[in-house]
């Protein structure tokens, strides 16, 4: 089987995209875990996190080696298409949030809602089960997007181990920082980070779907950096245009 | 494994991918499929224009983002 290599620029974009995506999603998950831990003790919270991480690890271990067996051009076309849709969804959401047309992700509100939900259960045994499930669901659902990012970027770049390692480093970093700052998670510039990941996913999606269809990019992998620049500028112009029409609407 | 459990797993798997790829932005799914189809046709039949694909592939992607944002802006203002 032909194994394509990815240059330093391609790997760098992959590492940054996986790292930032993992940080963003883990901040969201950690808010729920911290709320669960504060409300009903750390035992169900830690058990929920461990179970979710185990399930996510099984997904990577199961699908990763299977995806690597797919011929590189077919894999890059499929992965490129998925990344394009996924990245465009992230970018769209980030643009709408930064222009005030969509509410920003509010970690304080999520924290309060989680605490309220657990406290509404009066039976202690039942409360522990609810706490476990909330921690599990929080980490598993947020982690699924990370798993998809890791699997798609890692297998297409033929650097799955590096992608997994990057995600693990990001998860540990968020857990350590989260344990120290606990309730200050709301100050993380989540939308800006989501926008950065969106730009990178769309760039990778465009690049790989093109390669999968036989497009010869000038400069090979270096073109990835060019695409990041193009989509970053396009995002900035779109935000400015929407903000300008917002001002006109209000006038 | 009973048939109903297998059906529920398959249905859940299908629903996950439907929500993930289509969800509340079907226009992004449709436009991506359209962009890839056009790129495939041009790459297949017009090798002499492969340079053009390098330009219009990113342009079409930006256009699809702008269309989706415009649609969301209109929806938010009505």
Observed structural traits:
heterodimer; A: 251 residues; mainly alpha; 82% helix; B: 78 residues; 3 helices; flat
Describe the structure concisely.
The complex is a heterodimer of chains A (251) and B (78). With 251 residues, chain A is an all-alpha fold. In chain A, 82% of the residues lie in helices and 0% in strands.
Topology:
The complex is a heterodimer of chains A (251) and B (78).
Chain A: H1 8-40, H2 42-68, H3 72-98, H4 107-119, H5 124-156, H6 160-181, H7 190-212, H8 223-250
Chain B: H1 3-21, H2 26-45, H3 50-77
* Largest sheet data of chain B: none
Helix content of chain A: over 70%
Approximate shape of chain A: flat
- Stretches of chain A where pLDDT is under 50 for at least 5 consecutive residues are none
In sequence order, what are the helices and strands of chain B, one letter per element?
Answer: HHH
- Which band does the percent of strand residues of chain B land in? under 5%
Q: Poorly predicted ranges of chain B (pLDDT <50, ≥5 residues)?
A: none
Distance linking N and C termini of chain B? 49 Å
Number of helices of chain B: 3
Rounded radius of gyration of chain B (Å): 18 Å
Q: How large is the count of helical segments of chain A?
A: 8
Helical content class of chain B: over 70%
| Average pLDDT over all residues of chain A | 84
Number of DSSP strand runs of chain A: 0
Give the strand content of chain A: under 5%
> Topology as H/E string of chain A?
HHHHHHHH
The value of Rg of chain A in angstroms is 20 Å
Head-to-tail CA distance between termini of chain A: 62 Å
> Structural class, from helix and strand content of chain A?
mainly alpha
